Amino acid sequence: MPSVLESFKLSGRIAVVTGGSGNIGRSLCEGLAEAGATVVVASRNLEKCEAVAVGIRATSGRAIALPLDLADDCSIRKLRDAVVAQAGPADILVNNAISMFPGHVERYTPEDWEKSMRVDATGFFRITQVFLNDMLAAGRGNIITVASMLGMVAAEERLYPARGLDGFRPNYFFIKAGVVGYSRFLATAYATRNIRVNCISPGGVEANPPRTDAGAFIERVPMKRLASPNDMKGAVVYLASDASAYVTGQNLVVDGGYTAW
Predict the structure, then answer these.
(1) Residue 199 has what DSSP assignment?
(2) Is residue 257 in some structural domain?
(3) Edge to edge, what strands does the sheet with 62-67 contain?
C-alpha cells in the first residue's frame, strides 16, 4: 500500500484544465503539475495558456498549451485529438471555464443567455462527454468541475457595494448549481466503471487587480479573508489523486466557512 503522501502524487497522469489561463485556472494547473501530472492548459487565449505552461516548465513541471473554444464543437474535438497526440489520453478533466456575460437579470437579453448556454451548458456537456468516452475506453478517469458557493447560496447584494445586481451574471447561478447536480448524476452513473466525478466550490477569491469593495464581504467570511487562488491547489490535487479514491459525487466547498453560518 502506498503511503499517504504517495497517494497524492499524480506522476504519469494527463490532466486537462479548461479555462487554464484564468485566475483560478492558473493555480489549478500549477497544483496538478506540482503533484506530478502533465498538464494541458486550455482556453480561447492561446498566448495566455502558453505563458502558464512556460511558468510550469520553468519549475521543472510538464505542461502544454492548447486552444479551446467551448462554443465550438469542432474546437472541443480538436482539443481531444491534440491531447492524445501530444501527451496521451487524458486521465483527469478539470472543467473550470465559464463565459463572461454580466448584466442585470431584468435586462439580460435572450441573445446573451443563449451565448452563455452555448459555452456553459452545451460546451460543458460536450467536453465532458468527449473525454468521458476516452476514460471509459481506458477503464479509468477523473472529472472535476469548478462550481461555486453561489451555486449553493444566493449572493447578498449589500456585500458587493460597487457592483450591485448589475455586476452579477444570471447565468452564473443557474450554471454553477446545475453542474453540481449533473456531476452527481455522472458520479453515480459511472461509479462501477472506475470513473470518479466531483466538484470544487470556491468562495470569494482574490482578483487581479484586487477588489476595492471587498471589506463587507470579508467581514461576512468566518476566516476574515478572501481565498487566494492557491487555496484551490490542495482541493484539486486531493480530488484528482488516489488520496480520494473512495470519494465521488461530492462538492468540496472552499469558502473560508461562508456557507457554514
Answers:
(1) E
(2) no
(3) 62-67, 38-43, 14-18, 92-95, 141-146, 195-202, 251-254
Question: What is the model's pLDDT at position 166?
Answer: 63
Amino acid letter, residue 259: T
- Cell 468521458 found at: 132
Type of residue found at 193: R
pTM passes above 0.90 = yes
Catalytically annotated residues: 172
CATH number of the domain to which 17 belongs: 3.40.50.720
Amino acid at 168: F
pLDDT for 260 equals 96
Cell numbers found for residue 214: 471587498
Answer whether 141's CB lies under 8 Å from 132's CB: yes
H helices of 200-260, in order, are 215-220, 233-240
pLDDT tens profile 61-89: 999 999 999 999 999 999 999 999 999 99
Domain encompassing residue 19: 4-249
Nearest CA to 10 out of 29, 37, 41 is that of: 37
In a domain, 53, yes or no: yes
| 259 within a domain of the structure (yes/no) | no
Give the Cα separation of 50 and 216 in Å (integer). Answer: 36
- Count of structural domains within the chain: 1
Q: Percentage of residues in the chain with pLDDT exceeding 70?
A: 98
Note whether residue 14 is domain-resident.
yes
N residues, the chain: 261
**What stretches of 59-155 show up as alpha helix (H) in DSSP?**
73-86, 110-117, 124-138
Q: Is the peptide bond before 210 cis (omega within 30 degrees of 0)?
A: no
Confidence (pLDDT) at 250:
98
For the chain, list residues with pLDDT below 50.
none
